[in-house]
Amino acid sequence: MRTKDRIKAVCLLLALLCLPAGARAEGGAFGAAPTLEPVVPLRSARIRSVGDLMVHKKQLEIARQPDGSYDFHPQYALIADSLADADYTIANLETTIGQYENRPYSGFPMFNTPESLLDAVRDAGVDFLTLANNHMLDRYFEGMVKTVDNVEAWGFDFGGANRSPEEQAAPKVVAVNGINIGFLCYTQMTNGMEDWSNAAVKTYGVNYLRKANISEEVQRLREAGADVVIAIPHWGEEYFRRPESYVVAWGRKMIAAGVDVVLGSHPHMVQPVEFVEAQTDGGETRRGLVAWSMGNFISNMTKRYTDSGIILEFTIQERQDGGFGIEGVGCVPIYCWKRDDGIQAISSLKYLDDPPEGMSSGAYGRMQDSYWELRNLLDESIAMLAE
């Protein structure tokens, strides 16, 4: 109901209540009592998203238990509440899951991780995993299929890697608080592993950005009932803090095609978050939120800027006049705290003035620097959240 209609209805109700009882019963001078429409609250969903969930060799070593099992929960322990503090949480799983043949688990350059990682990620509050990234074929097509099987078995929503042509063609739409969110997941590359894998990889196994028809895929999601479309591309060059021109062109193309939010990853460094305008083929202007790169969430990388990332937050808000908007954009700044016996993702703002127990002065200083690097990189309109 529009605002002016609500006002009219309230006025009629007040007038009716002021009538004598008999007049109200018989309709009186005002005729029959009006039937008021119920006020339906506008729908909204608060979303959080992070960049790369990585498992380097050091992380495997730290997670390994005396009995040979692996426990990754401690690596997420200090940030789990922030990850879970949303109606829906999205992340990029940058490793294959499940042992391949008799090969040992491994970190860079061919990532393969025990299934127990999914326990920690799920228990930390992640709901959706994009599998479209350059390491998804690190155990070939068979390892990719095993990864999808495991991600599904652990109860995650997912996209970007497919076990069949039918799975690739099926629209990825998830309902969150009554809002249907459509997902498009792509990767720019798979490190050449597609040439060493089953040919199915190139036909349907992985969603490659270069093969995407964004407009058609957005239309298919809309026809499947999507109210909002989120694209999650794995793109760009590593170790840059600004997107390349071709990445910007792809981002604008996505917005013009009907995507509402773009959540980028791969550079391993945070890049700007901004609202981008683009012209549709019909000459209309569309506006969408683009996070060019959310950086690393957790890893053993040590190069400057690779030890930080963000938990991006935004709210999908239904509008009074129809449609949905993106509001309340902010982020939790993340620092990856490394030491001999632990690697943990933490909020640098939460601990900015009071470091966690056991943090060295060197790590504390670097954490503080990483916060200000992020604060200076991101537009002032992006709120910095402690947790």
Give your account of this protein's structure.
The protein is of the alpha/beta class and 387 residues long. It folds into two domains: 1-40, no CATH class; 44-384, Purple Acid Phosphatase, chain A, domain 2 (4-Layer Sandwich), CATH 3.60.21.10. Helix content is 29%, strand content 26%. The protein contains twelve helices and 17 strands. The strands form three sheets. Strands 1, 2, 5, 6, 13, 14, 15, 16 and 17 form a nine-stranded mixed β-sheet that branches. Strand 11 (273-279) and strand 12 (285-291) form a beta hairpin. The model is unreliable at 1-30 (pLDDT under 50).
What is the global morphology? Answer: globular
Annotated CATH topology of the largest domain? Purple Acid Phosphatase, chain A, domain 2
Q: Element order, helices and strands?
A: HHEHHHEEEHEHEHEEHHEHEEEEEEEHE
Kindly report the oligomeric state of this protein: single chain
Low-confidence stretches: 1-30
Structurally, how many domains make up the residues?
A: 2
Distance between the termini: 36 Å
**Helix count from the secondary structure assignment:** 12
Structure class = alpha/beta
The CATH class assignment of the largest domain is Alpha Beta
Helix share bin: 25-40%
